[in-house]
Design a protein that fits this description.
Elements: H1 3-22, E1 32-36, H2 43-59, E2 62-66, H3 73-86, E3 90-93, H4 98-110, E4 115-118, E5 130-132, H5 135-150, E6 154-160, H6 165-177, E7 184-191, H7 196-209, E8 216-219, H8 224-234, E9 241-245, H9 249-257, E10 262-265, H10 268-284, E11 305-307, E12 311-313, H11 318-331
Parallel strand pairs: 1-2, 1-3, 3-4, 4-5, 5-11, 6-7, 6-8, 8-9, 9-10
Antiparallel strand pairs: 10-12
Helix pairs in contact: 1-10, 2-10, 2-11, 3-4, 5-6, 7-8
Length: 333
């Protein structure tokens, strides 16, 4: 483990120790926190919701996960704006489009509402800090596995949503990992625009017109992996490499079947759990000033980034992962 990772881990342990010790009678009945996202019906967000519920139960506060059921940046902004008007104790937000949500995040800070980003960041906003995956590292991890699977040679199609900061960082991580494999080329980057059918249709098109040209598919978000795997299975194609993202049940099933070589697991449960504890502490132990660039302050009372980590899931550890996920969801109820 690197020194930076050790320090980050120590910070989280210390953070949670303070939170746990200080929770209890200080909370009042009106104290409410929110996690705001988009496409919140995705299986990925079930784990975040479980983490939010577990933290709320531990702290004895109210918390709710809200946002549009589809990928809708404007809808997410409307939800966030509505919450700001209610002046809750604090808000976590997973950012679909940094430019669309930036003004709303800044208004929350101006109104004295602690707001943190989780899962996907808005680095140019005045949010206090980001809790989530080191997305460049996650992409680099995927790129190394891709190079291994392709044995250093092949053309790749990537499915993403370019406007999301986290996905752009993942793609750069892949590119950096592939610098040492000049025989592997990212031939095409496809914007799915929040619609998994684009991945299904594009994969079908590739198999019809460019089957021999494309050797691998990389999915930088949760929805595309199972769509690509379904098409490959339907056409009985077994010689393509698929690297997916996240751990919804269909994706894990395709990993077990060997259609998806590997998927990268994030920790949305941890993001929401740590995020709510952080908001609770910020609400009860207020910063001298919210509207401040703490990232440039060498003596800042808060971090700039909390890395919740990522793990590569393949046939070797997929069953153990599924068992752990069931246990975590069970303890949050």
């Amino acid at each position: 483990m690197s020194r930076a990772c050790k320090l980050n881990s120590l910070f989280v342990v210390a953070l949670l120790s303070v939170f746990t010790a200080s929770c209890g009678s200080r909370h009042d009945s009106s104290e409410t926190y929110y996690l705001v996202g988009a496409n919140i019906k995705l299986p990925y967000w079930e784990n975040a919701s479980a983490g939010l519920d577990a933290a709320a139960s531990q702290l004895q506060v109210r918390a709710a996960f809200v946002g549009p059921d589809t990928y809708d940046a404007k809808g997410e902004k409307e939800t966030l704006d509505g919450l700001i008007a209610k002046k809750p104790a604090g808000i976590l937000v997973s950012v679909t489009d940094p430019e669309v949500l930036r003004d709303s995040i800044d208004r929350a800070i101006a109104a004295g509402i602690p707001i943190l980003t989780v899962d996907s960041d808005a680095p140019k906003s005045k949010r206090l800090f980001f809790i989530g995956t080191n997305n460049h590292q996650a992409g680099f991890m995927g790129g190394k596995r891709l190079a291994q699977e392709l044995k250093g040679k092949g053309n790749v199609v990537v499915f993403t949503m370019p406007e999301q900061t986290n996905l752009a960082e993942r793609l750069q991580g892949y590119r950096d990992a592939l610098d040492n494999s000049p025989g592997i080329k990212i031939d095409r980057v496809v914007d799915i625009k929040g619609d998994p059918r684009v991945a299904f249709d594009t994969t079908t098109e590739v198999l019809g017109k460019e089957k021999d040209k494309v050797q691998a598919f990389v999915c930088l978000e949760a929805q595309s992996g199972q769509e690509v795997a379904t098409v490959l299975n339907n056409y009985n194609v077994h010689d393509k490499v698929v690297i997916a993202m996240d751990t919804d049940a269909p994706t894990l099933d395709w990993v077990q079947k060997g259609v998806i070589a590997a998927t990268i697991s994030q920790k949305p449960y941890t993001m929401a759990f740590v995020g709510l504890h952080a908001l609770d502490d910020l609400y009860h132990n207020k910063l001298p000033k919210l509207d401040n660039d703490w990232s440039r302050d060498s003596f800042a009372p808060i971090p700039a980034f909390v890395d919740t980590g990522s793990v590569l899931i393949d046939k070797n550890n997929v069953t153990a992962f599924q068992e752990s996920a069931k246990s975590a969801k069970g303890t949050s109820k």
